[in-house]
Amino acid sequence: MVEIMISIPVIFVTIFVGAILTYLIKLIMPKVEAYFALLVSAATSYMAFALPKTESIYKFNLGSFNLMWGNNEYSHLFAMLVAVLGFFVVLYSMDFMAGKVNLGFYYFNLLVSIGSMLGIVYSQDFLSLFIFWEIMTWSSFMLVIYAQDEKFSVGIKYFVFSAIGAYLLLTALVILYTNSGSFLLEDNINNFIYLSSQNQILVIIFLIIGFGVKAAMMPFHVWAPDAYKAAPSSFTALFSGALSKMGIFGIGLVLFKFAIQNTDYFTYFQFALAWLGGITALLSTFYAVFQTDAKKLLAYSSIGQLGYIIVGLAVGTPLSIMSALLLTILHGAFKAMLFMSAGAVYYRTGLLDMNETRGLIRKMPLTFLTALMGIITVAGVPPLGGFVSKWMLYEALIQSNYYFLVIIIFVASTAAFLYLYRFIFSLFLGQEEKEFENVKEVPIKMIIPMLLLAGFTLAVGVVPGFVLEQISKAMGYLGIQTPNWENSVLFSNWENSSVNLMSVATSIGILFVLGAIFLTIKNYRSTRYVTTKDIHTSGEVPTENENLTFAVNFYQPFERSLGSVIKPSIDRIFNLIGKNIESAADYLRYIYTGNGQTYAMYVILFFVVLILFADLMFGFKF
Amino acid sequence: MDSFWMKILGFVITPLVAFAVGVTYGGIVRKITARIQNRVGPPIYQNLLDITKLYSKKTAVNHGVMQHLGPVFAITASVTSLFFVPVLRDSSFWFNLSFDGDLIFLLYMMVFGSLGMALGAGQTGNPNSAIGVSRGLALMVGYEIPFVLSLVALMIQFQTTSIHGLLAVQDTFSSWIIFQSPFATIAGILAFLGMMHYAPFDVPFAPAEVASGPASEFGGKYLALMMTSGSIFTFVKLVLFVNIYFGGAEDLLTLILKTFILYMIPVLTGIVNPRYRTEQAIQFFWKWPTVFGIIAILIVVL
Known about the structure:
Largest sheet of chain A: 2 strands, antiparallel
Number of strands of chain A: 5
Oligomer: heterodimer
Shape of chain A: globular
Number of helices of chain A: 22
Helix content of chain A: 55-70%
Strand content of chain A: under 5%
Largest interface: A-B, 78 and 81 residues
Structural class of chain A: mainly alpha
Structural class of chain B: mainly alpha
Order of helices and strands of chain B: HHEHHHHHHHHHHH
Number of domains of chain A: 2
Number of strands of chain B: 1
Number of domains of chain B: 1
């Protein structure tokens, strides 16, 4: 038997060749391709787990460029996220996508996007990072436009934003390359200090925007809600859960490997980025409250949560970075749970409009449980994992002079309760309608990933140690001192400011079980179930078809209280940004003619410009 | 193992005391309300009678598992929050788990019960319940802002996020926080008005508009457990505020005196006030209380 060494090239070969084979298998033997895709992603995920850290470095030359792939602790953290979520999404897709058209295309792009994400985190040089970044953009773009019923402009919007991001990245990379003469990350980090201060700032801004576009950081978030909605729910889980985290991966690298070297301006970067993250969190939360489409609501929620992560990274204290990285992992889990449960509802009812869906809890109890644990995690209520990251973020912010940012984050997370309740209420609670009488629970292959992720959020809430261990190693790679942590106790720098999660979980667990037992066995025989039509209506008997659901304009009072001041101005800002960017994007279509010749000319023009202005811009002569 | 059994005893006694105090306060409030409205009013143990009656009811109906479990969420949150609040200042008997959690944890723990109740109320399918929940959540965004401003001001000023830390501060300076940072206290107390859901902020439960809102479909053992939890929760909030702003208490008598006076603020405000509309109630908190909170932080920072 041939022993296959687990190394990065083997992983890439497995997933990319596997993707092509999946596509081919679909052509020859339909219905098998889903199992094959599952096999490929399982193998990839297993290898990503088993891949030895630090020593597995793979160097090679491409033309005159030295390229390097390797696995370090920071990469490993993100690779875990991609591997686990990727596998779960493929598993979920098997039933979710069954019977849809173009399945070979779907699985091909799904696997390629998983592979390219792994490529991004394993890249130790900017060139392969950029190539994988583009593969990721392409494959996700393909899946955004996969559902033909959506407008094509959604995909274009996503693509144009990605392209802007990519060009900024490329420009930054060129500046870095002219400085260091190498694409290797290590060389660039070491030589960064020799760039002129002006170029340093330029590089940092370009890189942060380039990565920030994928993380849907405001004001570059415009593509996100539509793209998340347009993609199939199964892919949206990966899109929001893992793909957007590649932006976070990049921002983390930029901040703590590059920006931190520019001691004069680092605090300004931190400040600007932290406030940008805070505003992203607040505005997108308010915007999520007024959505009527379940997936758009989750999309805005996702933008907001990434805002928290950016705040955590930008504030830059050990505790805040730990909270940001923990939230990165957790967000992958809970947003996948929420998108998957929304997808499950869509799978059974074909609806995502929250004004129409209702009362599915008794039909789909396990999906409800997933959604419930998902919203508890997002809300940050103990004993689930969201609390751990929220608590760390608050403690970190309070202790590091961002006093008003704390308030903004607090308000955002309180307002999050509104949209979270709206989400779960509209889909699962409320009146049970005849329309949904025959709805059944989704198949087991969709349930398994949802419940496993739910279990993960519970585990993080009680013993976060098993995640914090990898996170603190990743922080070690970024060169940040690790804050105090124990398996299930949270500490901050201030005396007495700690939370013992074990006693929290014990107290909640014991009381909950006791209460549930008491309520259940007390008068067990005379407790009975009545339908949702049998309710207190002050003596009036509702007729058979009377609509007793409260769903439309769910937060009208809240909307009113935001009043003449805040609400319109949020709208105005959004519309203004949206319109301007959209019209700018329209102009871009003149550039994107779709003609290969034109593109070739652009490439040449780019180099001409580069050569002409290299001296001026970067102080470099060809 | 003496201390171990003392600890267990603490876990048992504390909720009982909390319940007794909370339920008595409830009765007293009904009496006071009645006297102000020129009625005789029920005896002060009326709430206890009500709860006993409800527990002894034979039948109970529910609309599904989530409603069945809603009150369990509530009682879990109330008692757990109680365990994490130091009831008396220097007596370890009443500390329970209060060294294992801090203020930020408590803020989130206290939401746990409301969340469960909201979900339970949602499953009933009663439109009034859903309206009540939507109002309650919106109101929460209202009062949370001044409350958090106030707490953050205190946390920055005294460099602690734990209740024990705040108590120690009031001990060393031997003056209550109300005197040390009056603006934070004002913001906190104004937020407290909203938190207690008495008029003019009783929008989520408005009996005349939404038929008691979230509670309207709960009866028998469910309502009984909810009222039990409500009584304990009232006590938790009162003790928390006494600890934060009014120096805590060293013995039960002082505690009862302080909590009672504090409790009378929302109660007496409520009796003489009509009800706000929801948006008015929310906007109330975003005006002066928020201004006070911001002033409190600015004073600390500058």
